TrEMBL record:
Belongs to the AB hydrolase superfamily. InterPro entries: AB_hydrolase_1, AB_hydrolase_fold, AB_hydrolase_sf, Epox_hydrolase-like. Keywords: Signal. One of its GO terms (molecular function) is monoacylglycerol lipase activity. GO terms for biological process: acylglycerol catabolic process. One of its GO terms (cellular component) is membrane. Residues 62-194 form the AB hydrolase-1 domain. PANTHER family: HYDROLASE, PUTATIVE (AFU_ORTHOLOGUE AFUA_2G14860)-RELATED, MONOACYLGLYCEROL LIPASE. Residues 1-17 form the signal peptide. This is MEST protein. It holds the Pfam family Abhydrolase_1.
Length: 233
């Protein structure tokens, strides 16, 4: 009789083959609406999705929203209307590899590239001479830190609802991200990049003259209170 693990392996192969050929689910009406209300710009032959809304009359403030992992600009949908009531212009993008932006493979995904894409979008929209607010979350926090390091003209950077690994270093949806392990592995390299470039990105937080605000919920189950705030301070 064959070992049980051999039998399991033989059974897993056809099941995996079936899974890999299951078509991705259809987009919900909300996601279809989100996509139709956005636009694309090209960054180094990659199509990058973004959404740009004109909001509050009488305000000149601009906010650019940087989403987390493994999601997309749709992260911000529930507060979009509220942001448009506060800011003159509200802008969000899908990082390359996420949401409705291109997902090249093979590709070396990096925080540096994502920061350059944000800068590219700012230039594309003709806003590179204006002051900009950044509102970032999770994966986007590290992109914001890289932008701080580059001394992007920014009024405010809000690091909201961060995950624990964001601050151990003080630092649309991906459709079926597990379908390609190499793709997922290349995206997840940002964790190693955080460790490798810790001094660069923690240093940006420590030395920046840009006003910095942290949005933190004390009941966050990932970042315990009060240890998290002590580490951040």
């Amino acid at each position: 009789m064959k070992e049980w693990w051999v039998q399991v392996g033989l059974l897993s192969v056809p099941l995996l083959a079936v899974y890999l050929h299951i078509p991705p689910p259809k987009l919900s009406p909300a996601l279809l609406s989100w996509r139709s209300s956005g636009s694309y710009f090209i960054y180094k032959d990659q199509n990058i999705f973004y959404k740009d809304s004109i909001g509050a009359v009488g305000s000149s403030d601009i906010v650019v929203l940087l989403h987390g992992f493994p999601t997309s600009s749709y992260d911000w949908c529930k507060i979009w209307e509220g942001l448009t009531q506060r800011f003159h212009r509200v802008i969000a993008l899908d990082f390359v590899g996420f949401g409705f932006s291109d997902k090249p493979r093979p590709h070396r995904y990096s925080i540096f590239e994502q920061a350059s894409i944000v800068e590219g979008l700012v230039h594309h929209l003709g806003l590179h001479h204006q002051r900009i607010n950044l509102l970032s979350h999770d994966y986007g926090d590290t992109v914001a830190q890289e932008l701080l390091h580059r001394s992007l003209q920014t009024l405010m950077v809000a690091l909201c609802c961060p995950h624990q690994d964001d601050f151990q270093q003080i630092s649309g949806r991906m459709h079926h991200p597990l379908r390609n392990n190499r793709f997922l592995f290349s995206i997840l390299q940002y964790i190693n990049q955080r460790k490798k470039h810790r001094d660069r990105w923690v240093g940006a937080l420590m030395s920046t003259s840009v006003p910095l605000h942290l949005i933190y919920g004390p009941l966050d189950p990932v970042n315990p209170h009060p240890e998290f705030l002590q580490l951040y301070k």
